[in-house]
Amino acid sequence: MQRFETIVVGAGPAGLTAAYLLAKAGRSVLVLEKDPVHVGGISRTVNHDGFLFDIGGHRFFSKSKEVVDLWNEILPQDFIDRPRLSRIYYGGKFYSYPLKAFEALSNLGIMTSTACMASYVWARLRPIPEPRTFHEWVRNQFGEKLFSIFFKTYTEKVWGMSCDEISADWAAQRIKGLDLATAVWSAMTRGLKRKPTGKDGKVIKTLIDSFRYPRRGPGMLWEEAARKTEAWGGKVLLGRDVDGLSFDAASGLWTVSARTASGETETFTGDNVVSTAPVRELAGILAPGLSSRPSAERLRYRDFLTVALICKGGDLFPDNWIYIHDPSVKVGRVQNFRSWSPEMVPDPNLACLGLEYFCFEGDGLWSMSDDALVELATKEIAKIGLVQRSDVMKGVVVRQPKAYPVYDDEYRANVDAVREEIEARFPTLHLVGRNGMHKYNNQDHAMMTAMLTVENIKAGSRRFDVWNVNEDAEYHESGYEGAKDALASERLVPKKAA
């Protein structure tokens, strides 16, 4: 039985960041990844007959210098700068996103536009105090009319539930710092080439107009991170489905079992475990068991599938992606992979479009055959008017379970119950990343949670409370070094000490 200082469950951005930094520091580390082929998790890049595509689009933009420096360290020569261009499709018309005031007025018409402005003024004069739901939060920021046009349909496609069932935490996290006044101001000043900022002067990630991107997709970064982890002495094993995590309090050791693709069981021991596994799954394999397991089992996840269509025509449209708010089709978003990087499509006369559908594992969309999904996607892309049906040559389907942790009314209490018990009983079990913490965050935020966890492992205690990493990959608004400075000056008090 092999022993490691740290065993990492999952080779997504958070897991590989932790493994990379530990191996670089000369620490013994093992990564166990369920996927038999890819590293990168939801940030992997799929290769189908030379056509490369993401599982969703992954912009490389962060306010954290430490995260950006790590990207550059792992992949120093292969980032390209890309213009961001995205639009919204609604009611048979396309709207620039971020919105352009005169275009939106023209598309909506004078009556609807006037109703939107009146609704916005009313919402600002009579805001809902302490908004509890996504609906209430967005209504306060944009008004009821704009909520119904530009937020309701798309959000309910993504989550498969009413906006009145989704926690306001979701809106505050994903569109923090943005309201109608900020959006209009950004539209008016965009020509000045300034980075879009909110009232506090901070860059609003929702409105940025350019980003960096690995020339052959985000998987390129994580494949290189895995390679360098192994070059420094770490170990990355694919096709390992972790099915047991057992802690021995007497020795302080973890025993981790994993099932291989051939059905064999491998067992490893370690001093620390870093888990990026979904909290619900983790609770089911942890021993001794959690009294909070019922809370973990109430956590829900939204699943996701991409239908990649290979089409004639080369540069079909300039957008990186288009949000589909129109309720007449099921597709939620369309990615144009050539616009992410020309190297994603091997033939200049062809295009590769990714139609994204949000679903629950086992429901009607998820259970459709690949052929039926390709047919659905072909029909809907033609209905939207982006591609003629006859120009679609072929398609491929990729399913992604547990892509998004669901923010329902109970999620926060359920996560807190599990988190508090784990921190009290298992001080060497570290939760990081999107599913590991049940936080819908971007990869830079996931990386930051791993970076601070590595510092905790090296120190032998929970010096940093990774749950204080906010959604912009900052820690108390000061980044990674800010967290260290705060600790040094005793301004940072971790929630719990090991």
Architecture overview:
- By secondary structure, the chain is of the alpha/beta class.
- The chain is about 35% helix and about 25% strand.
- The protein is globular and about 70 Å long.
- The longest helix has 17 residues, at about 445-460.
- The protein folds into three domains: about 1-50 and about 60-75 and about 220-295 and about 410-490, FAD/NAD(P)-binding domain (3-Layer(bba) Sandwich); about 85-210, no CATH class; about 300-405, Protoporphyrinogen oxidase, mitochondrial, domain 2 (Polyamine Oxidase, Chain A, domain 2).
- The chain has 19 helices and 19 strands.
- The strands form four sheets. Strands 1, 2, 9, 10, 11, 12, 13 and 19 form an eight-stranded mixed sheet that branches. It has a seven-stranded mixed sheet with strand order 7-6-15-16-17-14-18.
- It has helices at about 15-25, 65-75, 100-110, 110-125, 135-140, 145-150, 150-160, 170-175, 180-190, 220-230, 280-285, 295, 335-340, 365, 370-385, 410-425, 435, 445-460, 480-490; strands at about 1-10, 30, 45-50, 50-55, 80-85, 85-90, 95, 210-215, 235, 240-250, 255-260, 265-275, 285, 300-310, 320-325, 335, 350-360, 390-405, 430.
CATH architecture of the largest domain: 3-Layer(bba) Sandwich
Radius of gyration: 23 Å
* CATH class value of the largest domain: Alpha Beta
Query: What would you call the shape?
Result: globular
Terminal CA distance: 27 Å
Q: Would you identify the regions where 5 or more consecutive residues have pLDDT less than 50?
A: 188-199, 203-207, 486-498
The CATH topology name of the largest domain reads FAD/NAD(P)-binding domain
Mean pLDDT reading: 88
| Count of discrete alpha- or pi-helical segments spanning 4 or more residues | 19
